[in-house]
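Example record

One chain of 403 residues, shown exactly as stored in the release files.
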Amino acid sequence: MSTALLAAIAVILCILFRILNVNSQPQKPSIWCGDHKFLDTILKISPLIQEPYVPTRLWGFSGHVQTILHSVIGRVKCPWPIGERVFLTLQDGTTLTYDMYQPLDATFQDDLSIAICPGIGNTSESVYIRTFVHWAQCHGYRCAVLNHVGALQSVPVTAPRIFSYGNTNDFHEMVNSLINRHSNTRIVCVGFSLGGNLVTKYMGEMDRERPAHIIGGISICQGYCAIEGTKWLLNWQNFRRFYLYIMTENMKNIILRHRSMLLSEEVKNRYKLNEHEIISAATLPELDEAYTRKVHEFGSLSELYSWSSSINYVNNINKPMIFINSKDDPIVPEPLLEPIKTLTMEKNNMLYLELAHGGHLGFYEGGLIYPNPVTWLDRTLVALIGSLALNYNDSIMKTAHAV
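Predicted structure tokens for this chain:
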């Protein structure tokens, strides 16, 4: 074998090892929580958040690989939970659907439901949602999963709109429907990525009357501020522009799939939409300028993004909230995480959990090449939901004793 070929192989291996970040070691999550009593309660049920997270050895220390595997392949040995699809017709004519999954463990004493809001363009049929739902069912929880309007190919769009970054009305409708069916249940709201932004905004909206059944919320891998996040995504650093391209194409595909309703002549005239501008949009800001901003009747993109950003609502939240992010998330850069760290140190009943690895919604763990079938995120979320239930029960007991 020639020296040149050996040198080329060595260079390729060095680049590969750098991309895979194989020199990294498992680390404990970092915790920000200024409310020590709340933290103590969380740790009673969720001591695992103080233990090192051990990614899959060969590739799990790369945020890119975790993110891509999560989006392309999903989970290993993924079960398909059996549920009931619920159809709601909203006042604006929208057909809203969510899927309901009952607990598999009948011995669980508390009636606790998880209201789940998936990521951008995702539904109850997304693989990471299915695995979490099944794991939650096995631990005695009922799950209700919102199907973002327009995301399901089997459900037609019946009004001239789809889901958006900041519209929490669909999630609110699902929560109310869940309560109508199970009036004694307590609810923990859980959101992934865009869904985390929606859940956080929903919990902090001042003009929103939320049901008393809600006892807390959890947000995973959200970016908190759409204005700042867009600036980072428009850069090629860390391949963020590539991820932005994928998200843009997915959103365009949803719009074009339902073009007969969303881009009818009447709708285009009403909102002054240019179909060519929508089809040719190369980034989300371009697509939002051509479509989203106009449909939601905002004067500028900055107004739309400010209205959509959960960071502008966090201070108003009066229920327990837990936030989870990873430092190597290629979609959500570290500077976007600084405000939530400060807020969770200042407010009661709030906790921020940051992992060194995990990518965007990946969090695969264990094994050399083949990961464990249950991810760190699935295990941790089920534990944290139990912690929020304990925190609620403790608060009820304290109130009763005070009376």
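Notes: The CA atoms of residues 208 and 298 lie 20 Å apart.
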